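Objective 1.3, modelling of assemblies. Example input:
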Amino acid sequence: MSDMMSDLGDLYQEVILEHSKHPRNFRVMEAANRKAEGYNPLCGDHYTVFVEVDDDTICDISFQGSGCAISKASASIMSQALKSKTTEQAGDLFNKFHGVVTGRDKNNVDGLGKLAAFAGVAEFPARVKCATLAWHTLQAALREKQMASTE
Amino acid sequence: MSIIASRIHHDEGISDTNLRKIREDFPILSRKVHGQPLVYLDNAATAQKPQVVIDAIKQHYASNNANIHRGVHLLSQSATEAYEASRRTVQRFLHAADPSEIVFVRGATEAINLVAQSYGRKHIGAGDEIILSEMEHHSNIVPWQMLCEEKGARLRIAPINDDGELILDQFEKLLNSRTKFVSMIHVSNALGTVNPIGKLVEMAHGWNVPILVDGSQAVVHGKVDVRALDCDFYVFSGHKLYGPTGIGVLYGKHELLDAMPPYQGGGDMIRSVTFAKTTYNDLPYKFEAGTPHVAGAVGLGSAIDYVNAIGLEEIAAHEDELLFYGTEALQSVPGLRLIGTAKEKASVLSFVMEGIHPHDIGTILDRQGIAIRTGHHCTQPLMQRLGIPATARASLAVYNTRAEIDALVTGIYKVKEVFD
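Predicted structure (tokens):
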């Protein structure tokens, strides 16, 4: 049982639970000039990510929607991490984050800040899509695609 | 399948000794998951397989394998006999009048597609209406939607109440001279609601409208008699009935199947072929193009023999008792709400928890060895109707025990612990 609880503790870190209960930047953004919807058809997670981009810089970012603790916390922490970053920096951060949560490069957490809390996801392959949904949605918004999907 | 309120004690269920024996029949139940004993409560998605079914499939390939309906050699004849014996087993299981009314398909989904494409394309046209219910599985929505798009027909949706029961008089009001077909789930996979099929058939037939019943969840939980129901088509998948995946059944009344064009072309479904013209085979072979899943049919026959040996009524009583026990146990958990509280209900415990998404419930239970399903259960329109994105669903089978329900409840308290 102790292994089980420690694995779960790795997944549901305090910071993740806290963000899932009190998501930051959880609002519709009227001034957004980029927006996309993200949907995971398997579990019904559904978010809209709003971005205000000015000259390749993410001036503001917010999200709305519903889903599990992992997907919501991921969207919330992502929104904090990316404010005033360039779109290129956002892409680099996603690459790094993706490597960590899929386990491809799971120890490479330097510079991830709070996003490092998602390292435990690598032990739960079924939950990788939850952790990356908001990021995929953001990418779609920056590419001005209407709909992102984890499938 | 009985009224939940009347389920107090079932002496006619399965004794503890027999339940232990039944559990030993299923090899997978002795394995561990994340170091914990497996508590398998995802039976509405697929049931586990008893050793006799695994052996029947193995035996078929090890000593009886050949193609069917075409060889003069001994193996082909005995494989054909085994395949046709399974067909007769299914016929008796559904109480169909004749084995020619039993078509082997890949599963319930293929059976519904077959009827939509064959019966539907022939008889349903522009302006016609097809009635479904709000609680249908996607497999009983999409094939009809595809047909409607092609033909310019339209779907009419019979609503449910907040308990997840079909509103009968609303269903009746939808029937009219444009109605050409009704397709309805027998037991809801997401809620466990048992629909009053007999009444629906009567109402549909009052307008001369045929009705297809999706029995995927129903055949596992009680006796189904297609002649007593008087439904026109009845479909189910083998894998929810302790049989293999990839095999399922379409029952259709002989005169309807006989008048329907083939669904797929190929071998076995023909009598003679020239480049000018093909004459089709008799029922049921007209609908079984290509080499069928012979081992699957053999396995399904063996699964039906297995449930018959335990007794369908005993299985239903056992599951009803567990459902009653589980309903009370889950209702006692603070912040947990059961979804689907129909008076007539079978073996499904769908629920949501305040502030905790079903997906998180599923992960935390999984780490305790408890397998449940989380999500929309392929019933997105139903989830929309209920105003929830998803549920957590525990679904019961013959081998489940009260101790497993207790493990589920303990597991749910652990979920609360993680989130508190």
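Chain B has 14 helices and 19 strands.
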